[in-house]
TrEMBL record, chains A, B:
Domain Enoyl reductase (ER): 17-332
Name of the protein in its database record: NADP-dependent oxidoreductase YfmJ
Species in which this protein is naturally found: Paenibacillus albilobatus
Keywords: Oxidoreductase
Lipoprotein as UniProt keyword: no
InterPro entries, per database record: ADH-like_C, ADH_N_2, ER, GroES-like_sf, MDR_fam, NAD(P)-bd_dom_sf
Length: 335, 335
């Protein structure tokens, strides 16, 4: 094994605005031999996610900033190629928060097995992983949609958004998606069963949303922030719930993120707005995975992936998230 | 009784921006004789409150807009001067949501007795009334301050704000007030026991708040919205709670109320922001009144009133709320 050459993506400077290739460096080095209790994991799928932009800043946040001159980390599914742990044998497929590199040599306790007979490997980075759980807990614990209510989700054609709308439907609510192309909107309605979808780039947003939500908005699952959220906030019903999951529209902003203040709207409607991260639900992950797995096996939940091929394109794939280039979960398949 | 002349304040046009005398008309007419089951209440104290500005607009809100050409209504403490109900006799002191007039002729069930031996009459419009309950439920149900946490309240020298800070202290938290004059700030610290107070009109707000809150902000009881709230939002700790009670800074705004968007801050800190009105706690009012009465009798809760004399000055008193002219509850004593 010691002849294996590794390739790693090292974080070398903090981006201002949209990250660029200059913020990263590809480095090569031999893969080190595992110590007792360690395993060598060959990367198969890498997850790229909007929250990673936050970790590239050194501002205080809910996750530690990435450190300069260290390998970027994220969710990875891979295969054990060498094991010095009795928990794993070569060929086992595992998932973990690992480094963006071809091989990770880590303590066995940092990865857990995934079962290809239940779902394809990539699903463990989307519907049966952090993505699915984020949609599940954000919508059901904070949003609490009731049958007949209207649930609006922004970033609806993204990995989390498309699950949010489908779970809303499972709960008997009306699902309205906001996305950035007509193709995405058509997909949401025709393939995933959303009741309506609005293209925020081409529509008169206030008008189109009002038409899509004739009974107002009871739950707004916010993935994007910015002007899209400003528009939804005008349609809130009394006691609306707003799980705030992401604000991708502002992540690369270098100017102040300024818009209509929400306070008066929140008072008038007695609405609740709550930020969350998946870690808040660590103790309930198993519950979420069981439910998601059940819905998946019953055919009630579809998921979509945009897969970019080749380790050399990890940064491209990450940057494409901010162009909205992905339908569903953005993944990189290591060549 | 039929010779009594009444004077009423009728709402004749909806204000744009700050209301003016032109939006109201004083009318005189004889007091009508009460029907069976009715009482005649002579007004003693009238409450003027910021939320009334909202009712003067016809926008959808949590309370019905005032109707044009009808008498404005609000909280009033008065004395029964004639009764056709066996529930009340002349001389009884009562409270109710009544019209801004010298006399109200209403069904007996619309008023309830208050006891002058427990607290002065005016207290039933402040600490032992809607004001006290608003502070109590907003802070304790949504804010949920824990011992050692930092509670910031804006509009701190207002009727609700000064109770919020004192209840925070009762619960063992650190109380920081934001108010608009040095006199108010000194009063909060020296008389009410706030740990710190910041004059938002003269201080470098970001700097002064950071100094007043060295451990960040766990609860922000928001009475004002606007730039003051923008500044507090920068200091939120993880899992902060923000009861949104009022946005007085925007009530008379004719321009859009624009400022830094809150979404990214809410996510980073996983904070909760929730609008509320007292009606949400209707079933728990008795609990609140008992607690407030206990703290009052134990000397743990002080309250303050700014009393304007004379029925003819009701509109003046209402408008002075928006200048921050009041310390504590703004009341009008009918001459």
């Amino acid at each position: 094994m010691s002849q294996l050459m590794n390739k790693s993506i090292v974080f070398v400077s903090r981006p201002v605005g949209l990250p660029s290739m200059d913020n990263f460096e590809f480095r090569e080095a031999p893969v080190q031999a595992p110590a007792e209790g360690q395993v060598v994991v060959r990367s198969i799928y890498l997850s790229v996610d909007p929250y990673m932009r936050g970790r590239m800043s050194d501002a205080k946040s809910y996750v530690e900033p990435y450190r300069l001159n260290e390998v970027i980390s994220g969710g990875i599914v891979g295969e054990i190629v060498e094991s010095k742990s009795d928990q794993f044998k070569p060929g086992d497929k595992v998932i973990g928060m690992l480094g963006w590199q071809l091989y990770n040599v880590v303590d066995a306790k940092l990865v857990r097995k995934v079962d290809e007979s239940i779902a394809p490997l990539s699903a463990y980075l989307s519907v049966l992983g952090l993505t699915g759980l984020t949609a599940y807990f954000g919508l059901l614990d904070i949003g609490q949609p009731k049958a007949g209510e209207t649930v609006v989700v922004s970033g609806a054609a993204g990995a989390v958004g498309m699950l949010v709308g489908q779970i809303a439907k499972i709960k008997g609510a009306r699902a309205v998606g906001i996305a950035g192309t007509d193709e995405k909107c058509a997909y949401l309605v025709n393939e995933l069963g959303f009741d309506a979808a609005v293209n925020y780039k081409t529509a008169d947003l206030d008008k189109a949303l009002a038409e899509a939500c004739p009974d107002g908005v009871d739950v707004y699952f916010d993935n994007v922030g910015g002007p899209v959220s400003d528009a939804v906030m005008n349609l809130l019903n009394d006691y609306a719930r707003i799980p705030v999951c992401g604000a991708i529209s502002s992540y690369n902003a270098t100017d102040a993120d300024v818009g209509p203040r929400v306070q008066a709207k929140i008072i008038k409607t007695r609405s609740l707005m709550k930020g969350f991260v998946l870690g808040d639900y660590a103790s309930r992950q198993q519950e979420g995975l069981v439910e998601l797995g059940k819905w998946l096996s019953e055919g009630k939940l579809k998921y979509e992936e945009t897969i970019i091929e080749g380790f050399d394109h990890v940064i491209d794939a990450f940057l494409k998230l901010f162009e909205g280039a992905n339908l569903g979960k953005m993944l990189v398949k290591v060549g």
